[in-house]
Each structure stands twice: as C-alpha cells, then as structure tokens.
Amino acid sequence: MVPFLWTTENQVMPMLFAGIDVGSQSTACVLWDGKTICGFAVLPSGVNPRERAKEALKRALETAGLPERDCFIVATGYGRYQVEGAQLVVSEITCQAQGVAYFFPRARTVIDIGGQDSKVIRLGEGGRVLDFVMNDKCAAGTGRFLELMAQVLEIQLEDYGTLFARAREPLTLSQTCAVFAESELIGYIAQGKRKEDLVRAVAAAVAERVKALGERLGIVPPLVVTGGVAKNQAVLKLLEERTGCEILVPPEPLLTAGLGACLVAAKKA
Questions:
Q1: Residue 252 carries which DSSP code?
Q2: What are the ATPase BadF/BadG/BcrA/BcrD type domain coordinates in residue numbering (predicted)?
Q3: Residues forming CATH 3.30.420.40 domain(s) in the chain
C-alpha cells in the first residue's frame, strides 16, 4: 500500500520520495511515487553540494511536471550529509544494491565506477548486500582517470567509444598510478603512436584496475555496471573481455543509487 501525505485540507496525494545521490562529480535526484519513477535530474556536483542538491530536486520536479511540494527526502552518496532537509540518510552501497535489483532482480555483482572511486558489490536475493570492496585512494580505475587522460589526448570523454573502435595496436599502460600513467602516455605520444591506440590503452588500464578490484570478491554473473563510466563503451567492451561476463547497464546508470534510496525509504514508510 502506498503511504499518503496530506497536502491540503481536502486533498490527499501519494507520498513522493526524492532520492538524492550527491557524488563527487554529479548529483542525481530521482522521484518515486511508490510505483514508478516520475521524474529525475542529473547535474554536475560543483563546489556547493548543498545548493546543487536543492537544484537537482527542483529540476526533477520540473521534469515530472509537478509543482514544488513536500517530498520525503532520502540522501546518499559522497555528500549525503550535505543534503538539507533529508529525513533519511543511507549508504551508497545499500542504495546501489537496491537500485540495481529493481532493474535486474537476478543481478549478483555490481561494479560502480564513479568520478573519484570504484566499488564492487556482491548481491544476494532482493538486492541484499553480501560484501563489497572499494577503491577510493587512487584515481586509477575511476572516471577521473579517464578525464585526466582525455585532457592529455586532447579529446572529449564522448570520443572514447568512436576512437576505440578504430584501434589496432594493443598498447599497455603498465603504471597503476594516474600520475605515472600520464607520463607513460606522453611517452607514447612522443613515439608517434596513434591516438586511437592510446585511447584503447587508457580504457584497458581502467578495465584492468576494476577487474583486479572485483577479483578480491569474485565476479559472479549477472554483472551490472553503474556510474558515469558505464556510458563509456570502450571500458565496457574491455571489461567484458577481461571478466568473461556479459555486462548489463541500467537505462540511466547515474540514477541507480538515487532510485535505491527511494526504495529503501518506501520500505520503511
């Protein structure tokens, strides 16, 4: 049964849950009415997560065609304690698990590759978290690594997939540290290596780092990848090759934690 919230003296409306995921690079807000996603927004996190969370909620209500109204706000992510008015705060591990289970009920492993960290989560039935590991000490294996290398290569993040498809020579970045990997990449450029092959080397470095993280738990299919890097076709293709698993990606991989936050709150309401 969907809980209700009185909005006027004579009108009752379904409770609206707002899951706000404040990440290091992006802030996502998902609106859930107890049955379906009715609105969402994704914005760059910037330097003021408190204000950006407010703006994400406002934008999500606009996409839903709803006026500003009271919502049951659930906060998660890197900056979850910065969300003003949050009535519930939940770890991003729990939220990712629940959000992924909504789209893929049989999922058993989640790889979340964000801007500043990457996580591998093992799931049981119903999105129950069995175990997880994180890499939050080094940029290698994260979206930030891809951004840094894109700057060196003078390309946009959106260019990775197209350039990767034309790669021929399997170059390797042997350094796991982002700083040293950048020097190694510059060395390849000095040798006149093709940009397409350098893009493949960068994507392969991320895939290798994430695979190594996953091997600490064991990667069990079905495997789902979330986070901004889930939109990078080069990384996904190489990660599939290295894990031997078909990779599933949610319709919008930046929304799973926000949706999961809503689902956790709905169970408690």
A1: S
A2: 19-265
A3: 4-97+255-268, 108-249
CATH homologous superfamily for 4-97+255-268? ATPase, nucleotide binding domain (3.30.420.40)
Single pTM value for the model: 0.91
Contact present, 29 and 259 (Cβ < 8 Å): no
Residue-by-residue pLDDT tens, the chain, 269 positions: 233 333 334 445 568 999 999 998 999 999 999 999 999 999 999 899 999 999 999 999 999 998 887 899 999 999 999 999 999 999 999 999 999 999 999 999 999 999 889 999 999 999 999 999 998 667 778 999 999 999 999 999 999 999 999 999 999 998 778 888 999 999 999 999 999 999 999 999 999 999 999 999 999 999 999 999 999 999 999 999 999 999 999 999 999 999 999 999 999 87
Q: Report the distance separating Cα 77 and Cα 237, nearest Å.
A: 27
Taking the CA atoms of 117, 246, 39 and 127 in sequence, report the sign of the dihedral they define: negative
The token pair at 7 is: 């909005």
Q: How far apart are CA 234 and CA 146, in angstroms?
A: 11
Contact 87, 74 (CB under 8 A): yes
